[in-house]
From TrEMBL:
An annotated GO cellular component: plasma membrane
PROSITE patterns: ABC_TRANSPORTER_2
Origin species: Rhizobium lusitanum
Superkingdom of origin organism: Bacteria
Protein name (record): ATP-binding cassette domain-containing protein
InterPro entries: AAA+_ATPase, ABC_AA/LPS_Transport, ABC_transporter-like_ATP-bd, P-loop_NTPase
């Protein structure tokens, strides 16, 4: 297995609080690796350091064999470290298909003053339609974003990220705010990405985590207390202890 993203002794301190406490972990190419932990465990702080929104106090982040610890967020995206909910938000008055085309064109490095000119760009539309064709959103391609449901927007944000052809996708709570049917559809969409893109998934929804993750790391008070597969994590007394009061979450 090849490690694509790893941290070495990562530490993030906020005043007196150590939110990331000597975290060393490895994300293997092709896997879906979930990061779980109780509220306040430091999951978002870790993700923010990986995508470059926060600088670590100590330690190193390696991506595709290179040290990216101090690289700006956009430079990480350009190297293939993608994430959802990034700065580029959806264009509410444009259709799903137009939003996708903008994302595809942005990856191709072309001008973002766009849609009229893009009528001439067959390659942009071809790739857009390929991406949409493999998604449940394909049937909503001509709907404007403002008319999409919350779950459909989340799916579109994911697809927009994929248009950047990331090597690794950092997903921060993709199930948040979704109803049961929408969550199930998102799980299916993410299952379809297995083997195509490496995913680090931060998620509170344990059904989704256990349905998707090849590996799971458990973060508690800023430290990774265990990494293993779903069975190992579910069977761990230490992990159950960490979720005390929420044990049902781990069923
Ligand atoms: N900018 C900040 N300044 C000070 N403290 C912070 C900052 N960001 C996060 N923290 C603290 O760091 C700790 C970890 O927070 P973080 O949001 O990373 O946890 P989390 O695991 O993502 O929580 P949740 O599951 O509730 O989203 C918390 O105690 C939080 O209050």
């Amino acid at each position: 297995m090849t490690t694509i993203l790893e941290t070495h002794g990562l530490v993030k301190r906020f005043a007196g609080l150590t939110a990331t406490d000597n975290v060393s972990f490895a994300l293997e190419e092709g896997q879906i690796h979930a990061l779980i932990g109780p509220n306040g465990a430091g999951k978002s702080t870790l993700i923010h350091q990986l995508c470059g929104n926060l600088l670590p106090t100590e330690g190193r982040i390696m991506f595709a064999g290179q040290d990216v610890t101090r690289l700006a967020p956009a430079a990480r995206v350009a190297r293939g470290l993608g994430r959802t909910f990034q700065v580029t938000s959806l264009l509410g008055e444009f259709t799903v298909r137009q939003n996708m085309a903008v994302a595809v064109q942005a990856r191709m490095g072309r001008n973002l003053r766009i849609l009229d000119r893009m009528n001439a760009r067959r390659d942009v539309w071809d790739e857009t339609d390929d991406l949409l064709g493999g998604s449940p959103l394909g049937r909503r391609a001509d709907i404007v974003v403002d008319d999409l449901s919350h779950g459909e927007r989340k799916q579109l944000e994911l697809l927009v990220s994929l248009a950047g052809r990331p090597k690794v996708l950092l997903l921060d709570e993709p199930m948040a705010g979704l109803g049961h049917a929408e969550s199930q559809e998102m799980i299916d969409v993410l299952k379809g990405l297995r083997g195509k893109v490496t995913i680090l998934l931060v998620e509170h929804d344990m059904d989704a985590v256990f349905a998707l993750a090849d590996r799971i790391s458990v973060l508690v008070y800023g430290r990774i207390i265990m990494t293993g597969n779903a069975e190992e994590i579910a069977a761990s007394a230490e992990v159950r202890e960490a979720y005390l009061g929420n044990e049902d979450e781990l069923c």
